[in-house]
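Suppose you are handed a protein chain with no further information: no name, no annotation, nothing but its sequence. What can you learn? This example shows the usual starting point.
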Amino acid sequence: MRNKILGGASVLAIIMAAGGMASAADVPVKAASYGAPLFNWSGWYIGASVARPTARIPSDSDPVNSLGRAVLPGMHLGYNVQNGNIVWGLEGNINFGKTTHVIGSPTQLVRLDNTGSIRGRLGWAFDRILVYGTAGAGYMNIKATTSGNTVDFNGHTWRPVVGFGIEGALTNNWILGAEYLTYLGSKNISGTGDDTRWVKNVEEYRLKLTYKFDSSGWGKGPVTARY
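A reasonable first move is to predict its three-dimensional structure. Written in structure tokens, the prediction is:
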């Protein structure tokens, strides 16, 4: 009898132990924490660019499509805020130098100097890739002269500007981007009636190299995601 009791107790102990192991197996085990780089677009940035402006400078009697004759250096400064995948911010840019357009009937020289803009940006981040749209106010300084060196127009104008772009983070601080901007509306620069000539369809194709300040500067660098 004693041996049977001891044997039964042994079997029960084995069953209970097995049940305890099974229950423990059902309890989820927290994975070991590890860090994975996740790029954060938030923060201040500054950079340089090259722009290829184009414009149309027609009159009613002389429709003209004129390509810019220069690649202009420029710079930009901005700030981004990232919430989840959404990135929004503000950027200002300026191009240095002039784009010359020679048009006929009568022969006229039109220069676009120091174009620039102040724009809001709204985009979607795919980790180190950002696609965005942009809109704001654009500035143009225009000078138009005839072949006799008579100044028909010398002044500036502000126009709405819209565009889009894509940027990729090469490192935690360096960003390469491409952007398209178009200035809406037109500006009368000479003549009246059918001889009126104006600047319109001003567009810019920009290539940008940007330095983004990390957490030791004005902005925020990459963050670490934990799982």
